[in-house]
């Protein structure tokens, strides 16, 4: 009997895409015909969460298959540099051709392979001329003689949340380049089973869709953000930090908010267009039916909900992500699964699909234990897990009120715990603890899906709240994350506040192309 060929794996990934931005899953405004197709032909996991709602720690947890308490990466900081295997390492050692295109956000070395045989790099920041051979998209722009482009992904820093049409035409836009390079790979690589990571920076801000995509949605036709009457009571310390950092705490322009959403949606639709081109290529090369396709994102974006911006908090607009899988015979039939899943489940799902012997026999990998589960087991009811988790720890010195600098003198574990947010979420409930606020949040996900009312203080839900709290504490204890816990309760740290100076901590994030001349005439220099 002929051995069944192992499936290819296509990993489609975006940055900062909310869970509620797919037409087929209920967003009647956005146009996503190709993601809709994946929903029709695959399985949509509608309660998918980031293990840490910020770029680097989320991606670290994804490729390691571990929560932050095991990776040691809790924010946009350094990923492990030990001998821990990524799932790309394992697939490569198992005979897969592993290739990454686009944003990986690896640290401390952004050019590292971490299990990829090859990469084609397109990251957010600038580059030096000496690194052009490594930074493939910047090299592409250089060869195309785009000498006027200073910031290829849009003007950052002060204009992070100022929607701006791309300075590049659609054919040379970063999103299109990712699509083009993915198509080339699919056309050329058909000898071995392959794993392709196609990773788009959009819809991460700045929101810079190309012409004519920037006119796809008109602001006056866009829904307003969701801002409950008592929205301030729903904010945590990290929301206040980000609102300052992202120039969002000095008043809200409602027209501007709808323009932001219009451009954000346009960025997603342009990604969706590339996904359609990639799916067409799979069909034309007769690879579609032997390919596991997974689409997801690292975290969400508040988009003005609760008058908040950015990510990092445990609200659904930040921590909940899209998750769609398509694979004939395993993930098909246009199903919807509302059992919670996490980005930590991607590694075991891929290793199971690839029939990796070590994972098949031990449910783990040689270098470490996986925290996630095969999402096929979740779909078919073989998994008994009901709750997934998340943790984010803010770099403590970031925007802290200067009068509270003494808190920075704590030892490392206590400092991390003092500035951490934690979450446990099931299909029915969500429990959040914000240590900088000494505050609990408890949301009924069935009756209050938009998280408009914190029920943590309501006497009628105390038993359910306590059960979720203890589930979260047991999870943290099992991983040795105990500096913020005293017996079975939260350690009470002093409450912290952000710097009262309204100009303190505003985001400056310049990352220029290497040929950009940033020198002003002498008479204009200080």
Helix content: 25-40%
Radius of gyration: 22 Å
Mean pLDDT: 94
Q: Give the termini distance in whole angstroms.
A: 78 Å
Q: Tell me, what is the CATH class of the largest domain?
A: Alpha Beta
User: Low-confidence stretches at least 5 residues in length (pLDDT < 50)?
Assistant: none
Number of domains: 2
Give the number of DSSP strands.
Answer: 17
Identify the overall geometry: globular
CATH topology of the largest domain, by name, is Alkaline Phosphatase, subunit A
Beta-strand residue fraction: 15-25%
Named at the architecture level, the CATH assignment of the largest domain is: 3-Layer(aba) Sandwich
CATH homologous superfamily assignment of the largest domain: Alkaline Phosphatase, subunit A
Largest sheet strand order: 5-4-6-1-7-9-2-10
- The SS-based structural class is alpha/beta
The largest sheet is: 8 strands, mixed
Put simply, the count of helices is: 14
What does this structure look like?
It is a single chain. By secondary structure, this protein is α/β, with parallel strands linked by helices. It folds into two domains: 12-386, Alkaline Phosphatase, subunit A (3-Layer(aba) Sandwich), CATH 3.40.720; 394-500, Arylsulfatase, C-terminal domain. The chain is 27% helix and 15% strand. The strands form four sheets. Strands 5-4-6-1-7-9-2-10 form an eight-stranded mixed sheet, with helices on both faces. Strands 12-13-14-15 form a four-stranded antiparallel sheet. Helix 6 packs parallel to helix 8 (254-284). The relative contact order is 0.17.
């Amino acid at each position: 009997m002929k051995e069944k060929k192992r499936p290819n794996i296509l990993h489609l990934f975006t940055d900062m895409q909310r869970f509620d931005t797919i037409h087929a899953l209920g967003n009647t405004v956005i146009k996503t015909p190709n993601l809709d197709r994946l929903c029709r032909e695959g399985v949509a996991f509608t309660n998918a969460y980031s293990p840490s709602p910020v770029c680097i720690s989320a991606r670290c947890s994804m490729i390691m298959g571990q929560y932050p308490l095991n990776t040691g990466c809790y924010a946009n900081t350094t990923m492990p540099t030990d001998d821990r295997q990524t799932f790309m390492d394992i697939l490569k050692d198992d005979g897969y051709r592993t290739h990454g295109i686009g944003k990986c956000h690896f640290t401390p070395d952004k050019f590292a392979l971490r299990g990829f045989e090859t990469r084609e790099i397109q990251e957010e920041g600038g580059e030096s001329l000496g690194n052009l051979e490594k930074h493939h998209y910047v090299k592409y722009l250089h060869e195309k003689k785009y000498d006027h482009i200073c910031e290829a992904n849009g003007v950052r820093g002060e204009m992070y949340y100022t929607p701006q049409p791309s300075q590049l035409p659609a054919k040379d836009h970063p999103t299109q380049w990712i699509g083009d390079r993915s198509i080339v790979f699919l056309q050329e690589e058909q000898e071995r089973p392959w794993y392709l990571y196609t990773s788009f920076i959009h819809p991460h801000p700045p929101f810079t869709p190309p012409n004519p995509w920037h006119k796809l949605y008109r602001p006056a036709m866009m829904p307003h953000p969701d801002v409950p009457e008592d929205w301030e009571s729903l904010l945590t310390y990290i929301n206040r930090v980000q609102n300052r950092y992202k120039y969002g705490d000095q008043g809200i322009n409602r027209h501007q908010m709808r323009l932001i959403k219009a451009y954000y949606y346009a960025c997603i639709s342009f990604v969706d267009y590339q996904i359609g081109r990639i799916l067409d290529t799979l069909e034309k090369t007769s690879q579609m039916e032997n390919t596991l396709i997974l689409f997801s994102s690292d975290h969400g974006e508040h988009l003005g909900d609760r008058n908040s911006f950015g990510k990092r908090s445990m609200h659904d607009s930040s921590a909940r992500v899209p998750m769609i899988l398509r694979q004939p015979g395993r993930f098909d039939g246009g199903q919807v699964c509302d059992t919670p899943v996490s980005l930590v489940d991607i590694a075991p799902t891929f290793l199971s699909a690839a029939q990796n012997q070590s994972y098949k026999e031990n449910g783990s990998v040689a270098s470490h234990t996986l925290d996630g589960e095969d999402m096929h087991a979740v779909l078919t009811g073989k998994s008994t897990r009901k709750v997934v988790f998340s943790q984010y720890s803010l770099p403590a010195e970031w925007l802290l009120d200067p009068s509270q600098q003494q808190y920075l003198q704590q030892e490392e574990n206590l400092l991390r715990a003092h500035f951490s947010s934690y979450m446990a979420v099931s299909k029915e409930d969500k429990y959040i603890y914000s240590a900088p606020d000494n505050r609990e949040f408890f949301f009924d996900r069935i009756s209050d899906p938009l998280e408009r009312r914190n029920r943590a203080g309501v006497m009628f839900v105390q038993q359910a709240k306590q059960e979720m709290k203890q589930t979260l504490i047991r999870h943290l204890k099992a991983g040795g994350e105990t500096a913020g816990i005293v017996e079975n309760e939260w350690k009470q740290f002093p409450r912290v506040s952000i710097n009262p100076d309204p100009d303190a901590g505003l985001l400056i994030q310049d990352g220029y192309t290497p040929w950009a001349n940033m020198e002003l005439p002498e008479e204009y220099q200080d």
